[in-house]
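Follow-up to my earlier ticket, as requested here are the two runs.
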Amino acid sequence: MLPNPILRPLQRSIGQWRGVLITAPSIAGLAILANSVGLFQMLEWATLDLYFRQRPSEPIDERIVIVRVDEYDIKQIGKWPIPDAVLAKALDHLKAQQPQAIGLDIYRDLPVQPGHQKLEQVFKSTPNLIGVEKVVGNNVAPAPTLSKLGQVAFADLVLDADGKVRRGLMSVKLEENQTKLSLSARLSLMYLQAKGITLQTKKPGELQLGKAVFTPFRGNDGGYVRANYGGYQVLLNYRGLENKFHQISITDVLANRISPDLLRDRIVLIGATGQSFNDLFLTPYSRSSLGTAKQTPGVVIHANLISQTLSAALEGRALIKVWPEPLECWWIFFWSTCGAILASIFPLKRYTLGSIFLLGCGLSSGYYLAFLNGWWIPGVPSLLVLVGSAVVNTGYILIENLHISHKKLEDYSRTLEEKVKERTVELERKKDELEQQAIELAKAKEIAVAANAAKSAFLANMSHELRTPLNAILGFTQLMARDASLSKENQEYIGIINRSGEHLLSLINDVLEMSKIELGRLELNENNLDLYNLIDTVKELFQLKAESKGLELIFDVEMDVPQYIITDGKKLRQILINLLSNSIKFTERGSVILHVKTLSESSPNNAKLNQKDSTLLFEVQDTGFGIAPEEINSLFEAFVQTETGRKSQQGTGLGLAISKQFVEQMGGKISVQSQVGKGTIFTFSIQVQAALATENIKAEPTAIALAPNTPKYRILVVDDRYENRLLLIKLLESIGFFVREASNGEEAIAIWSDFEPHLIWMDIKMPVMDGYEATKIIKATPQGKSTIIIALTASALKHEREFMSEAGYDDFLLKPFSENLLLNKMAEYLSISYVYAGEEKTDSQASKNLYSALTIEDLCVMSSSWVQELYDAALTCDDGQIMELIKEIPQSNTNLVRALTDLAHDFRFDVLIDLSMKLINE
């Protein structure tokens, strides 16, 4: 017995390679067994066929010419089989060109009249003509004359189990111990004998013909398993299909339409090639994606076998050779061992798979290269064992590792109970901690939900409470702006008030926009914009504030900046206002500069449309306090202010955060550069598209009256705030509408039933009964369904708009609103049109014409008491009482209503006093 120190290394080596020693022989043995019973035979054939189809194309064999007989030729000849006279004529024409040999691959065992005698004469006079017979299976006799002359060969082909021809039969030995040659062998020998090359025997079974040594096929050669190897067979090394040989039709031969020297010293094969003849076979080239494989005529297969024999004998073209069976078995064992070793070397699966893949690709390429050099090496078993051994050995290693793991688990189980107890105590402690965390998270969630609800309620309430007075401020400034009697200075003051109100509204919208940003609901609303006008408007907004602080406000727009662009004008305006407001706010001396330029090559010529996107660059530079470096990173966060901003106690901390979101949504970026004590430069870019000036929306003209012949529409205004009702009444009556008012939903319903208005402007939040309830009640009646109800709301939240739709509102208008927007909304639903300021015949001119043409006869339609009340109201300048009296005028007197209304609005109490006094005196 060997001592233990010597045994241990050997035991370790055996243990390390145990998987390889078990796996490699086992997988190899299974593969050899499977190969021996023919499991891989079809795969090997398919691989061989693929090699034939994929190898480089070979040149045409100039030594062989095929005379084809197809359906067209039979149609020209008029009969099949071809009459003996026609065949004799064709053979005469062929013989005249002195070919080396002629192979007639058409059975002629029976005469086909007319012309049989002529054909026999041609047979006898053509010693290099070889006819065919069939000797395997159902025999077909040769032509008797050729048989007597010994000019006969067999035309039988060998078919594999899948019906394809991959082997060539060179000779057979018949029962009477007579050896017969195939057509291809006979013609090849005739050609080579003329070249001085004869057939010689080397070893038993091996034949040498010129440079080639032919070895007979055996049943297990290559991918074959127990194939029939009777006769002298060789593996066919195809040159190709019909296109690898010269072809002429028998019709051309009969008409003598062939080149004079085409056939001289060549082998001529005559055979049927048409699809309707029973002489078509499958070959390695036969494949079709549509399910019908293309077949090859037998005469072309004979031509390939002749070409193979001649090329091998004369040029040394490779014949297909195979390995002996023992070498194939050792080859399979070698690759089985390689696969098992790879699985042992690489513990990671991905390395094993990669190595197997690379080896498989290399092995497949090697088989193909070997085929190109004349060797057919069966590759399927070796590839399968390479993969199979790797997989099985990997599994073996996994099982071994599993056994090792089980052994370790058994070792751990000895102390497992104590560890489990310790772990249980720890888990219980963690469980208590998790439960406590869950309770705290639930509380935090409740707080977050409550905070979110409070935020929503706050936003809704803030929106309503701030927008409502803003509605009055902006609305009355618009009304005052309509007064032509105001001086230019007062008009300018009103414009400043209006722009300041709009700026205040934008601050309110900041909070709402930030809420939308947090919810991911921010949308880009692009439209046509006059950029120069926008910049001028923003400059007017800040001019007074800058002058009051002694700052120089400079707006520099480069010449190549397009005036008319397509972008979201509201968001661009808000960005500029936010940045300029901050610069002016935190700058005590010096200047604030806005510089605008373009980064693209868009033309500044506004007469041409530039469809190409442009990048506009805006720089807001100031000489203010500056921003500390540590504050820049958090500058664009919501509700975050710089130290200077906190000291000023101004702003919400939202402006820059919203500006950043707007800029990014508009396809740009925003950045900041700042030095404390020297100033700050904010730079942002946006993507815009240039537009024609004609595409831009022009400022809407001011509507001053209803168009002539417009019916008197009744309008009901419902709002709990007096100033809001007064604003709408003044505006609508000045246009020519008949207006009544209500302060809550309950009053609105009562007035609606008697007044029957065409349209109701309905506020939402009101005491006694809100707008939702009043709208539902009105819309629930048949009469109310035809009444247009439009909500007037100060809320901008989406869920409240959904409530409006459910309540039955036809539309909504957000406070504060512009008068043009309100009038356009009415025109949309009532299908009316207006007279606008600046038209050829303005409404003011029409009004003057109306009340200048007004006479006491026009007032006679009213009672004397009514005229007296009108006189008293005009005398005391009570325009409210005058409007109440106008409401009593019948609706048919439209001109009278409009004339008196215009006199009241223009404060022409003198005209009213004069007219009414004349009528009273009469």
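Run two:
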Amino acid sequence: MKRFFVLLLFIINVDSNAQILINEFSAHKGVFDENNIESDWIELFNNSNQVEDLSNYFLSDDLNNLEKWQLPNILIEPYQYIIFYASSRNTQFYDGENNFYHTNFKLSPSEYITLYNNNEIIDSTFINNELYFGISMGKYPDGSNQWCYFNNSTPNSSNLNSVCFSDITNQANTNIESGWYDSTQTIILEPHLNSTVYYTTDGSIPTINDILYNQPFNVNENTILSFRSFSNNKLPSKINDRTFIFEEDNHELAVFSIHTDPINLWSIDSGIYVSGTNASSDYPYYGSNFWQPWSRFSRIEYFDKNKFKKAYENIDLEIHGGWSRAEPQKSFRIDLKSKYTGRLNEILIPSKSNIESYNNFNLRNGGQHTWTDKIQDAIISRIASETNVNYMAYEPCITYLNGEYWGIYGIREKIDEHYIEDNYGFNSDSVDLLNSFGVLIGSDINATNTYYSIINEDPESIGFYELFSSHWNIENYIDYFIIQTFIQNMDWLGIAWGANNIKFWRPQTEDGKWNYVLYDTDGALGYFGQSYYENYLSYAMNPLFTNEHSQIFNHVIQNQVFKCEFANRYADLINTVLSYENVEEKANIIKNDIYNAMPRHIDRWQNYDNLNGTINSMIEWENSIDNILDFYSNRIDPARYFVGTTLNLNGMLNISLDLFPVNSGKIDINTISINNFPWQGIYFNECDISLNAIADSGFSFKYWTDFNDNIISENNNIQTNLNEVVELKAHFEKCEDILNVSIYSENNNIYASLISSNDQNTYMWYQNDIPYSTDSILYQPPSGIYHLEVSNNSCSITSNNINYNVNIDELNDNLDLNIYPNPFVSQAVLDLSKFQNQKLKISITDIKGRLVRQYNEINDKKFIIKKEKINSGIYFIEVKSQTTINRIKVAVN
């Protein structure tokens, strides 16, 4: 590592006579800013007897952009220090005593920090990938050329106050990896030259006071192993952890193994899992340690359902939840804080496979249902996933705590700024996220203005609906209130007590709209004793504890346009997503996922510590799930009834739909699509119903008839008011102009083979079901699944799908590209020297053709690509100039 560092300095020609120098830095936090947020930092030192002006200096973490962040117009006194917060916030703040200067970048391992001035790199350093939390790197003595590692960092003061360590000890190897075993295993630890290894088996961090490894040893029962290497004049290595599980099954569930010092859990003074000395004697034992907002350094291993170890990360471990904190099996918050690595780069929840990296997540015990069914909130989340509501996804797992089986949990997303960025693409630094008690992220100014602008506007005025929809995502708003009132969530909106379990967010853009997030529905479906005949729509309009959210809802529901949208959508959802059949299917899927694992879980927690608040048998557990479904089936008719009566909609009527011939199309009714016929649904009077007949490929729409075949309309899109029972049939006919279309690939292009009696055809290509091109031929497209839709007048026909993969060997024959290293771990250099004086567009796609990253108007000779937020795998880099398209395959490790 040191040889590489010296080479780096030589290559980039650092000015060894410079007066302003990089003196110390940390890429793993270590200082707190004006908001008490921990940050990466860079310390500069004036190694001269002159006052220096810093305004012409630049700091950067990008060799392609040495002027990335210009230092502010400030002076630094002789032999003085100044720190800059590498937070990416690009701000300055003065609190009356201290200045806080924030750069526009953060620090990451395996990248460079440069100090630049007058077209010259004044100083530079490489961030060693072996650095870890609690360690900084700096010069010893100040301003010298000797770099050291410090386990006691000294921001804004002399490095002479620290001990200079020459290096970090290399980690030891082990012959046995974490996993499942059926027989005794012999553990061999392999230290590097001139180092010794110490280990523990209780989750604590190894020190030189723990067990010295000097010979192999055997394990034949569930064991965790933590080991660390030590050397003279070097810092200890990173901690290594292993989990060995014997003669137990994961039942095809993902598994987490948490390693932490037992003191973090069980100390009466500081343990996060215990009651401590200040606990109330009454449930839920307020004052207990587990009610404190404490977090403890820990480590976590993640295994997929096939028992393959996929990730190992440092974390902060916290207790999660409301009253369920008082249960024997508690929920955990897993925080991958950026002072460690900041992300767990795996798909934890397959139903959200687009999220491949997590900053944090929760392991939920089932909340208030941990002693009954464990899965009610998961069922409702799965239902919500088919609506416009923001929701916390769910995936079951098994957890081990310091090697001890800790039972079944649900992997759940944590609703914070990272949730918004991961799910909806808005930068986590540019959102407002609030709950009913105040600001979580950002500001409440827009929320306050929104409240008053809506409340002060007459809901019957012409501009009210437009005003409301300019502030709120209407589809999200309607679905959120439908679900919450339908399931009768008692622990929400001030219905029974304070305005609990409300979170809403918006992007900080000029037209950013508010969205609700659904979470914690434990108090729904009669769980706290409510009857399915209670009118929760009325409760939401006028709850026991009135609040801004209920006031807005009570106001907007008086608008006729919104009221009918709300009523029609309510009917749409009850007829489809909220139908008993759909909910029963979702419940059975989740139940079956954990069914085989439940006996072990029940055995683990049954009558734990003489407490009876747990599941005592499989029959009891299954009955609890049946109770959810029984309540649900009885809830549907009262829910419909209360919509009609509360909104004064004068009753309900049936609508029956069919089509002819069979398999010739579909019918959209309001917001839902019907594909199986004949179909029947129940809707409300006094609100128009929208119907749209959509032809399948190879058919065109003819007309609507009633069930007696009397023609009603020749328009495929019609509206009807339910004054009486409606029976409608959509008629289609086969296309004559376009007879057949198929697609095929050849020479890295995709072509269409078309049989048609008409030359006036239009083309729409789709890549992964997303519109891609209207050209007749696709030239050198990226990898993906393609199909073509050819249209003529009212008729269209769709081709077959082809799974197209770029033939990289053919493309490489004429490549003007070179990338090195390939494969790469942290970053790679793309050589663009053959594209002189051209502005280039660079795109990175994965093997499925999905765009991962894009750069526009690049005209550098060499371009650095960083791994940050790119998962390991194979990728294609496309460089597009005005005249050529070149691609190269690269592997990221």
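The only thing I checked on run two: The two ends are 19 Å apart (CA to CA). Let me know what else you need.
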